[in-house]
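Now for one specimen:
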Amino acid sequence: MSTLFHRLVSPCLATVLGLSLFLAPAWAADTSDNDTPVKEIKVAADAFTRGDPLPSWAQPLAEMPESHRREPLVIRLAETQLHVGAQHALLVNRAEQANDAAALGSIGEYPLYFIPEYQKLHLHSLVIQRGKTLIDRTQKVNVRFLQREAELEEGMYSGMVTAMLLVDDVRVGDILHIVYSVDGQNPVFANQYAETATWDQEEPIELRRIWLIHPVDRPIHWRQMGDFNKKQIAQEVSRSHGVEYVKFEERNVAGVDDEPDVPTDYFPDRFIEFSEYADWHAVANWATTLFPPVDKLPDELQRFVDETKQLPTPEARASAALQWVQDNIRYFSVSLGESSHRPYSPALVAERRFGDCKDKTYLLITLLHALGIEAHPILLSAESPLLPQRILATPAIFDHVAVQARIGDAIYYLDGTRLEQHGQLDRIGPTLPGAYGLVVDPSTTALTELKNPALHELTLRELDETFTVPNLEGTGTLAATQTWHGTNAEYMRLAFGRLTPEQRRKQVMGHYERRYPGITLVDEPEVKDDPAQNTYSLTMHYKIPKLVTESHGTWTLHYFPSNLSGVLNVPEKVTRSFPLAEAEAPYAAHYHATINWPDNVRAAEDPQSRKLASDFFSLDTQHNFRGRIATVDIHFDMDKARIAAADVPRLVEDMKKLDNAITGTVNVGHDELRQAYAADASLQDILKDRMRTQVERVSTVLRAGKLTGEDLAEALCERADAESNLEQFDAARTDADEALRLAPVLARAWECHADQLAARGQFARAADEYGKALSLGTPPGDIYYRRGRARYYAGQLERAAEDFGKARAVAQSAGDDEDAGDSLYPALWESWTLQRLHQPLPPTLVDLAHAAPNDAWPRPALAMLTGSMTPEQLLSDVAKKPEDDRELTSVEAWFFVAQYRLAHDDKAGAKQAFEKVRKSGITMYEEYAAAAFELKALDGTLTAAKAR
């Protein structure tokens, strides 16, 4: 439902009018939508003039150089002169040549930008050069003054005006040569100087020059910036009569190709920033003058404060103040002159019932102060949250302001322009997490990073789908619950709550109609809104014809976690020069699917856990299918918001792996249907019958006599595995011996032979042969695990723990290749082995245990072994599982409980638990065989204890 989402944090401070708006109007940094309607306005007579002489401070203009370039548009000359004084000003001397009809618009419709409230625009000259002919259009060019209506539609008015120069009769080959100046500065900055001058652009430039002209006693700090082209721009410095002149110049400046989705704090183009502010402390001092203390509140606000003081905690009082400002003051910005940065008084804002970010912030901190809560404004960049940390100290970068509130040791960032934030302060959507802002306080000396320890949880998007298949041929049902946390909950609360019933139905059908043809929605979506915890849930019920499909005796159901759809930004062009921005980061998602198959389905698959290793995200998947219920759990996390250009091809490859990993099926074979067995058949009888069927199937192939060499050895090993599961150890040994004789350099043959040695209790020999299999190149993860068990029962506990740790590490770090697998079972064995050795658990194992302890099996068992759950709680949870799943999981659960009791020196309790494992009769489980070895060892120790 991403179509509902829209940005709630919008820039609302008028940034200092950047030089990019004046240096090259054809490529100006005008971020307005060009399709937005504009209206023509009138400006004061003295706001715009033509034909004026150059300012007295101007340096001699650069001459236009020759050019032999044939690009559609060539910048022959781009000169800017910056003047710092009692009245700041700039002068632009620019020449552009159109070599193609497509570029005629660039010189024929030429926009200049200024704010008439405090600036004046002077068009000194506008000449068209056609060959050797000069055509002066200074007095004749048609000038229209325009404003975009989008500002009013978006609840803001900044006073920005476009002076559109409509140049008649421009032709291919013409050169537009324009000279103009702008003087005046927003009075809110008290004549302090800060500017930015672009250097590179998309078109090539024959001559680029910038003059900085300032009094010697007003030092101006400057810095060249640029992340792609780091070539230093030459400069010359001279002084005369108390004025310093700094000239920056470069010829033959190559154009820079644009790329989409570049991080906002990355600079593909070079530019030069200038600032009179010595440091961030100076900027903070300036900003403190904007928010003076309020001595007396109007009656309405005082009544609110008196009532709110009755709330039990400072957090509740701060939350109430935030909610009052968000709900009662609509967003509207009138930013003319000083009001671009200076807020209106809280009393006036409360009376008008409207204001922008600075007005709402001023009102909110005033209420918080009245409630006894420390609060300060914090200046931010909504468009580029990380950018302030990279540039010179200047107020020009900030386009937003919020509140930093301190309650005890906790710091909260509150934004009055947001909506639907009604709950606990630590549960509201974070304000520009990770941004660097400037706290408006006289003690401020540096920027502050906006940290949020609960960021992962507050970005979580959950999807729970329950499929029910009444029969394999008919209509199925789907119950889907989507839950949003934090900022996403606020988006949904705001957007979905305002839709009509018909619009809601269309939204919740969305991708489901594409996935399941013929799907229908049953009843209206159910909304569950919890403002206190800041969660928002939608539950939908669907009917799906032909939910499962059948092919060659196998029934298949498809699932897809839509909360992971399109989460990665993958560009069309993989080869890039600039890094790629991942707009969704940080992003956390959890998908859970439950498939209720018909009553006649009886599956017995071991839980599988896989991890997709990536430098860009983490993905854990767990699958379980026991009895008639299958479950899928997928956890996804992405924190990396910036991808280096060189890493984008790997990102694309990992995206393909992600798509394969999250899109899946659950299958039911004919042999998993109950009617294939007697009506009163027990689960252990069914499983043993399947093993017998496997033995017979392989035997039939062997009797055909067509297999030789390693293929024959593989088949013998497959039959040996099934025979061992049936406790036919002599037959299994015979097959394993023959497999090893036939293929002595086949890793699989050594694995198979080692398995049979371990099944008969010859653990030391088995461990050696597992090592042989490793040396022959078998995938190491599972072999480390099996060798660890052999060493464990051989009494080599330290070496066993080492193997279990290696098996876990392989599983945790492996991608979607054959080494990827389950890290939880090796972790279980590693934990109790280390406990027997009285050694601490490694941090990586502890982290694994603490990650989602109540998630899919066997995570709860690992939680129990590491102290996060009791055996009684574990067994109680297992008892709640349905039918066959409960019986199979109980085998493992009692084995793990027994190990827990051994670790706590309860040998009698451990013996009882191991005996329950043996009574299950589930012979194909490793825990069944292992319980026999444990009981044998326990009988010896218990007998010895009685003798003492």
Notes: The radius of gyration is 36 Å. The CA atoms of residues 377 and 403 lie 5 Å apart. Residues 1-9, 16-33, 816-821 have pLDDT under 50 and may be disordered.
